[in-house]
């Protein structure tokens, strides 16, 4: 029975019945009764939630699948299900649709997968001295296309870049909390918030967003792919805001004058301290012949980002992951939080079992928490940097447990078994927590606190 056949029987236009059929309108009881009479079924039959048959169930499921934006993103034309289409064909299509849904939601990895993916990525970065020549080239070509001639990149040039990729920029107030930007590929719009999100300025986020487009990224296959894309897009963003052709001569000159400084680099290119320090590691080995390390950690010492090709040994778990581990209390990234002026640059020499390092550390304040950004080199390379004359010098024997990973014996004796800390929830990027009975809790800190207050 077609819609017009049924419409004729109940005295309604087929278009009205179509609205009912698609769930856009609800019928009055009187219409329901006429429909039941016309179809020769009891009214309850029409109100039942279960599909009347397996066939009807499959047809409904296929109809719903075709309305899913994910399904529509495949760009297939609408499939009209005729009477002659066998059930197993519909079942086949539905199974493919389920697999599509499953595979597209994969980037949420288990902590183990995340740690492994991170470790593998770090291995690759280490191998190439954190320098990605092919991304430098894409960035240089892109800048060339909008007439970049040197120096820092102006705001006007950034807007030309957005146009160059055929996009339109929209500032909004209601961006979802879990994202930094949203790109509408259909209408070619990039949505951003005008305020700074922690260290991420709108222009940094914008360049990273364009990075996914410039580098032809596809929907990530798995977590490792997601991570690789994020690293590449961030690299592209830094290479756009701090072009290789401008940064390298600038740093070479500073090195010749023994005045290398991350603050100056951040100032000259108007980028965050974090971006300047990380960008330094991109070009340090390839162009300046310097090996270095970079870390980002919070006040509790939890490491969020780490890179090294200068032989520094980070704490790591059995999968080789460094993120989520706690940094030695003696390292510059920890001491900077206790420095008399915690927001100016802090310099320190650290004697480790693997040699002496010189580090500069700076706290980048952010919305949620402050992060210490550290750049370091081996002792002999400190001569190229401003701040080498510092008299701060400490000894770290980590990863040996007697350094700081265990509370001092005397303290532990007084408090072991007598402390019940309630852990602060970690909003860690990878939900990877440092190991311990109370994950994320620094026993030594807790014991010291107890000691102090017990005395008072
Ligand atoms: Zn230590």
UniProtKB/TrEMBL annotation:
Gene3D superfamilies: lambda repressor-like DNA-binding domains. It comes from the Bacteria. InterPro entries: Cro/C1-type_HTH, IrrE_HExxH, Lambda_DNA-bd_dom_sf, Rad_response_metalloprotease. Residues 1-46 form the HTH cro/C1-type domain. CDD domains: HTH_XRE (cd00093). Belongs to the short-chain fatty acyl-CoA assimilation regulator (ScfR) family. This is Predicted transcriptional regulator. It comes from Thermomonospora echinospora. The lineage of its organism: Bacteria, Bacillati, Actinomycetota, Actinomycetes, Streptosporangiales.
